[in-house]
Amino acid sequence: MVEAAGQLLVETGYARASTNEIARRAGVSVGSLYQYFAGKEDIFREILQRHRERVLPTIMAAFARMAEPEEDLVQTTLDLLRSMARVNAENPRLMAVIEHELGWLEHEDDAERDLVERLAEILRRRHAVAPTRIAATAQLLIVTVAPLSRWLVHGKPAELDTEILIEGVGRMLRGLLG
Amino acid sequence: MVEAAGQLLVETGYARASTNEIARRAGVSVGSLYQYFAGKEDIFREILQRHRERVLPTIMAAFARMAEPEEDLVQTTLDLLRSMARVNAENPRLMAVIEHELGWLEHEDDAERDLVERLAEILRRRHAVAPTRIAATAQLLIVTVAPLSRWLVHGKPAELDTEILIEGVGRMLRGLLG
Amino acid sequence: MVEAAGQLLVETGYARASTNEIARRAGVSVGSLYQYFAGKEDIFREILQRHRERVLPTIMAAFARMAEPEEDLVQTTLDLLRSMARVNAENPRLMAVIEHELGWLEHEDDAERDLVERLAEILRRRHAVAPTRIAATAQLLIVTVAPLSRWLVHGKPAELDTEILIEGVGRMLRGLLG
Amino acid sequence: MVEAAGQLLVETGYARASTNEIARRAGVSVGSLYQYFAGKEDIFREILQRHRERVLPTIMAAFARMAEPEEDLVQTTLDLLRSMARVNAENPRLMAVIEHELGWLEHEDDAERDLVERLAEILRRRHAVAPTRIAATAQLLIVTVAPLSRWLVHGKPAELDTEILIEGVGRMLRGLLG
DNA sequence: GATGAATGAGAATTCATTCAT
DNA sequence: CATGAATGAATTCTCATTCAT
Hints:
Four copies of one chain form a homotetramer. In chain A, helix 4 runs antiparallel to helix 5 and helix 7 packs across helix 8 (134-154). The termini of chain A are far apart. Chain A has two domains: 1-37, Orthogonal Bundle (Arc Repressor Mutant, subunit A); 45-177, Tetracycline Repressor, domain 2. Chain A contains nine helices and no strands. By secondary structure, the first copy, chain A, is an all-alpha fold. Chain A has helices at residues 2-16, 19-26, 30-36, 40-67, 73-90, 92-101, 110-126, 134-154, 162-177. In chain A, 79% of the residues lie in helices and 0% in strands. Chain A is elongated and about 55 Å long. Chains in contact: A-B, C-D. Chains A and B meet through helix 1, helix 6, helix 8 and helix 9 of A and helix 6, helix 8 and helix 9 of B. The structure holds a DNA duplex.
């Protein structure tokens, strides 16, 4: 059902994705759909939820490595970027549309705030940057890496080599963290 | 009329902004609206268009300064970031909604591609980076600065100081361009 | 629902017969109407269809009699004319409006072609006319009888006696077939 | 203007032929259109009117010949049929649509009634048929020849030879007229 | 729990007609 | 007379949601 909704979201957009059609594609009745979801929005909130659950472990794994003092911060961040790009690549169209069309139904940067908090904690423990700059640096990392990972998948022109881009990002990160 | 549409977009979102209500607010009849716009989408496309026309001069002015060899590339880029944030700040709610709700009707690839091209030309003339890295660097600058400028206005937590963030961006840029 | 549409068609014509009003008269919601019909045209196409299904058995029965060698061709054709006039007379207003207003949505060529074919076969088996004239004669019969049967019901001036007219048609048929 | 309306009538049908589009095609403003016509219906009534004015002289000429005792009634009627078919052939699509779509805006069989009257008078003077059958015969002739002439132009299958059909009609007429 | 027909408010869009310029 | 922008009532059609079976 959520899958059917995802398909339709990609094909027609949120507005034209009707609950009846979602149910039809999922091979259930509209009635059943309303047994499991409170309404149309709720289905797409679930899509968002699953998206986060898919992405979060990747980020957490990267954070775990970043927390290790012997790991290079820049390298692990670039690895994170690569991982995120890989996750996005699983269903690039869907990921793109989730970003484009489902933004309005989340008030909760809670998740993002939490990530920033964790990253700040890591920077603090590793004495990676001056204490006054920790919060801003953590934010900047999150705010920069996320759009980049999406763009790498569905925005990047084909003629641009990914590794050269990643190397450029590495320079940016070294400037920020160095 | 476009103004009325913008207001409604902010207040109710794209889906609930009806053409009849837009016309009513603009003080004209629906018929007139359809004399000037091909349909609902078209009105909002116009909003997008005006948005771009509002933003482009700012970018072009910054590019002009970047092209001057005596200007510091990083400083002018940060100025660009500040200018864009200022433009976005003129009507933060509208900008936010344009981001969140109107993404699906833009195919602004051409516009962005053009910007990247101009920026690449500047980097080339200033010998700012190695020739092999020009394209990637230009892309990275655009892809990084654009979301940042938006985020500074409608995503940034209030407790974070803008200047510290900008300084962080400065470090990233110096890393990239240095 | 089709009945309600028929009523409205008679009362107001195709253009002024709105889907909402049709639904209201049928005692259902517009939504239901659109669950069963693809659109406005579709409802009226169904009216046409039912009309044909009502008329066809009459024609087929007459054809069956015409196929019998012992039956008089002219008499059975006149009987067909009378039957068709009777069918049209069941709801003369509706038949008239179907003629006048629904012509543009029929491509009944196939149905008519089939009738001509069957009639030609009958003429051939009965050696009613010279082989070279069979096709033309069958066509002529169909093309002449059909409008006549309609005209008898909703075109004929009241002061004209039907039987005298039918007798006249008999003369024509005898001329054609004799 | 009437020409533009005729074109549109053929291309889109009465319902979709808008006054604005008619004016545009005619190269005048809607305002002007309403200076010359009382409304949409009026334009199409004019089309009907011109249609009749185009057809009537042909019929009258044939009637004049029929009135001559030395002319063969059947032959002149067949000539009329040929002439009418020729008139229809000038713009077959338009003639067909006029019949199909504009029927509802004429209450006036006055014109037809007049024709029947004249034909009856001719039959009476020529003693062509028994007095009791004059009215019915005249009607039958009109009612049969009119649809036939239209059908010859826009309904007749290409593989059917016109002259064989006309010959068949001749037989019918000879049967009818004695 | 599942079903899916029924609902009907609400949306987008059209177009005959008017009237100030 | 000509113009054509403006009008807005009316129409077609959609779709989230309900509820009796």
